[in-house]
Amino acid sequence: MREARKGTLLQSVDHALAVLETFDAATPELGVTALSGRLKLAKSTVYRLLTTLAARGYVYQNPATGKYRLGLKAFEVGSLAVGQLTVRETALPFLESLRDLTKETVHLGVRDGDSVIYLEKIETPHSIRMYSQIGRRAPLHCTALGKVLLAFSPPAEAARLLRRALRRYTPSTLADPDVLGKELARVRDQRYAIDDEEFEEGLKCVAAPLWDYTGAVVASAGIAGPHIRITPDRLPELIKVVCETTGEISARLGYRPAPPAGPKA
């Protein structure tokens, strides 16, 4: 898309935005020479861009180092954009695409106490469907949406729930605290959860977390369908599509994964 519209871009604005986008958590301060090298622009051009951005408050020059960092105006504008985002509105077009790709019912859920609440539901085109509705509550410990939210909740909150007697809904429900604790650790490690007929017999689900710009898990989303359609040979592809979708939604919510740690000194 960028190449297709290149002829319509105002080059000076494009370069100014490229300067702002070059700063990141790993390099919060950059000098003219470093920016020139990264952007492949002349130093004189970079200097003029920085001077203009500094005058508007988008960058700030550290008097001690002479290097530049993002200014408060960049934070102000970014905060306004983030404040206008809602999970449901942001996720909806991606969830519709997920339904179209998988042909299964898609859910978006948020945590409320010891329950997950369905914030959105997009129905499968198949005639065999699961019963669910927006606003319905379901338990955390035996649903894919709920296990994701529980796994990424503060450890003290998860520990509190694990100390309680957990209701067994089907023979497959993980009602033993030790077994469920190990399952939650797997969910944190693999970043998705599976409900293998744990809440309703014959129903299987896959869900993954949604992160926001602060790095917090604010919701979970996934697919649900009968075990005759969500078969073992189909499951890996469904997991892949669900995780890709939630990754795209998280990115739209402002989430940026932490860069990998460098070698230790």
The CATH superfamily label of the largest domain reads GAF domain
Strand order of the largest sheet: 5-4-3-8-7-6
Number of helices: 9
If you compute it from the alpha carbons, what radius of gyration comes out, rounded to the nearest whole angstrom?
A: 23 Å
Poorly predicted sequence stretches spanning 5 or more consecutive residues: 260-265
Give a structural overview:
- Helix 1 (11-22) crosses helix 3 (43-55), helix 2 (32-39) crosses helix 3 and helix 6 (144-151) crosses helix 8.
- Residues 260-265 have low confidence and may be disordered.
- The strands form two sheets. The chain has a six-stranded antiparallel β-sheet, with helices on both faces.
- It is built from nine helices and eight strands.
- It has 265 residues and is α+β, with helices and mostly antiparallel strands.
- The protein has two domains: 10-75, Winged helix-like DNA-binding domain superfamily/Winged helix DNA-binding domain (Arc Repressor Mutant, subunit A), CATH 1.10.10; 87-252, GAF domain (Beta-Lactamase, 2-Layer Sandwich), CATH 3.30.450.
- The chain has helices spanning 11-22, 32-39, 43-55, 72-83, 87-102, 144-151, 155-162, 177-190, 235-252; strands at 59-61, 68-70, 105-112, 115-122, 137-139, 193-196, 203-211, 217-226.
